[in-house]
Specification:
alpha/beta, seven-stranded mixed β-sheet, Polyamine Oxidase, Chain A, domain 2, FAD/NAD(P)-binding domain, 3 domains, 20 strands
Length: 540
């Protein structure tokens, strides 16, 4: 029997998710020879697209990309030259009138466009002139605040750096007085619900913005969630986008960029263990037994997977890490349909381009989260729908469409021990029916469905306990606390050469690439410092 092959690299990246690929690209662009190893046979982790049914291309994880379009990473890596093309989600959000048959006035739908004037006109027609004027002021205040948060997300998460990014918010803007520190603290540390109640009167407007903000995970009643609502203000400059051909268009462009610098991606042969020597990482061993010797390993996978790969070599900071993983996150239903959803009172151009925020009262969100907290299924599923085949005809054959429905706060483990395999299809149909209440006839258009329960998300994408954010996105698990205070610097204390990236680390889940870029910067900074030290020692 032949000996397993041994290769060398300047850096090995574990995991081909978008953060791992961003890290690899930045390292390769700096001149390092980089290899990415991935256990899956599909590139991209939760940012990937597969042909689910003949001719029908379906995302496996994310679909709408928000933060990465504000981070500068797409431009820094010139991903457009490597095949990435985004379709703008504009209008980026749609909130329906009250569902047919529900109590209360139907009102008019709310359409959130990049054009702030058009958005305010829609809010005025649906909610009145007071809320329209308040929303305009809200965007004026929270646009600059959210832009500073973008900067903080793109930097290392130390308290000093965080203060440096947020400090300018207290400076007086043109025509506006200096913001008191107490006001900033109240807003940033307060709940999204409290922020919405201070600014607006219409429950439908508040519900739409709360449902948008809640996509990060925590309910908007939690402290520290106000900034998640405030993020909406940035979408009037650059909206969410969907890559042509599916979400995986991003990771395929990253692979092309990496390969243009001589890098390599190996699928279906992930890291099984680390190589170590003299108290530091010296490479990885893959599942096939191949050895890749390298002084740098960037683990762009779940922090618990990193601990498992490190095995007995994991230092206490990694072996004992126990960040909050939660009890699941959501349920996804991927549908092949023969028609797009049709919402009364609004055109397809206004309702189908972006996020269909199908919630009209925050009480719906509170009930769903309460049920989840008790380990129970939501009594009333709250859907968010996306139908990007309306603007991208590469996703499905003519006359066919792909509609993704996201239902949040579904438990991974249920209090009564119910097996997800026994109820998955029934729960998927309940979520489809929840969309049908707002878009009558939608349920009849569904021809096929692929259901991703929290358990399947774990099995398919390595999302432990079905948490798409890896680690809970509550205030106590953000910035310098993510995934733990000891591991928040992207290094692993006690095991030089091992670095962390991915949604387990700052700034958390969502498609941003910030963690990958920051991890690469830390690696390059350490190499530079080591090089300077070596030169000084050589001169002595």
């Amino acid at each position: 029997m032949s000996e397993p092959r041994t290769d060398t690299a300047d850096a090995v990246v574990i995991g081909s998710g978008h953060n791992g690929m961003v890290a690899a690209c930045h390292l390769a662009q700096a001149g390092l020879h980089v290899e990415v190893v991935e256990s899956d046979t599909v590139l991209g982790g939760a940012v990937s697209t597969v042909q689910r049914w003949p001719g029908v291309h379906v995302d496996r994880g994310s679909s709408a990309h928000v933060i990465i379009r504000h981070s500068g990473i797409v431009e820094e890596l010139d991903l457009a030259a490597h095949g990435l093309r985004y379709v703008d989600c504009d209008p980026w959000g749609f909130a329906p009138a009250t569902a047919p048959g529900s109590a209360g006035p139907d009102g008019r739908p709310i359409v959130f466009s990049v054009d702030l004037d058009a958005t305010c006109a829609s809010i005025e027609a649906a909610c009145g002139p007071g809320d329209a004027a308040a929303y305009r002021r809200f965007v004026g205040v929270w646009g600059p605040r959210s832009a500073q948060v973008v900067q903080a997300f793109g930097d290392r998460p130390s308290p000093a750096r965080l203060v440096r990014h947020l400090w300018p918010l207290g400076a007086p803007a043109k025509g506006r007085p200096r913001t008191a520190g107490g006001e900033l603290a109240t807003d940033f540390l307060g709940s999204g619900d409290a922020l919405l109640d201070r600014w607006f009167s219409s429950e439908r407007l508040k519900a739409a913005l709360a449902w948008f903000g809640a996509q990060s995970g925590p309910p908007m009643s939690e402290p520290g969630t106000a900034a998640m609502v405030g993020w909406a203000a940035l979408l009037h400059t650059t909206p969410p986008g969907h890559p042509v051909g599916g979400s995986g268009g991003l990771t395929h462009a990253l692979r092309a960029k990496l390969e243009s610098h001589g890098g390599r991606v190996t699928l279906g042969d992930g890291a099984a263990s680390l190589l170590t020597g003299e108290g530091r990482v010296t490479g990885v061993v893959t599942t096939s037994g191949r050895r890749i010797e390298s002084p740098v390993v960037v683990a762009a996978c779940h922090v618990s997977a990193t601990a498992a790969i490190a095995g007995a070599d994991a230092p206490p900071a990694l072996a004992d890490a126990a960040p909050p993983l939660g009890n699941g996150f959501g349920l996804v239903v991927r549908c092949q349909t023969d028609a797009l959803p049709t919402y009364p009172g609004v055109s397809a151009a206004d309702s189908l381009q972006g996020l269909q925020l199908l919630c009209t009262d925050r009480a719906q969100l509170a009930r769903a989260h309460g049920d989840w907290s008790a380990g129970e299924l939501p009594r009333e599923p709250v859907p968010l729908a996306m139908s990007f085949s309306a603007s991208d005809d590469t996703l499905a054959p003519e006359g066919q469409h792909v509609v993704t429905i996201w239902g949040q706060w579904y438990p991974y483990a249920m209090a009564d021990g119910t097996d997800w395999a026994a109820i998955a299809d029934a729960e998927a149909r309940r979520l489809i029916e929840a969309v049908d209440r707002y878009a009558p006839g939608f349920a009849d258009s569904v021809q096929r469905m692929y259901v991703q329960t929290p358990l399947r998300l774990e099995q398919e994408l390595g999302l432990v306990r079905g948490n798409v954010m890896h680690v809970e996105m509550s205030l106590a698990s953000m910035f310098a606390f993510r995934p733990t205070p000891e591991l928040s610097g992207h290094r692993v204390p006690g095991l030089p050469g091992l670095y962390l990236s991915g949604a387990s680390t700052h700034p958390g889940g969502g498609v941003s690439g910030n963690s990958g870029r920051t991890a690469a910067r830390v690696v390059l900074g350490d190499r530079s410092r080591l090089g300077r030290l070596t030169k000084r020692l050589t001169r002595r």
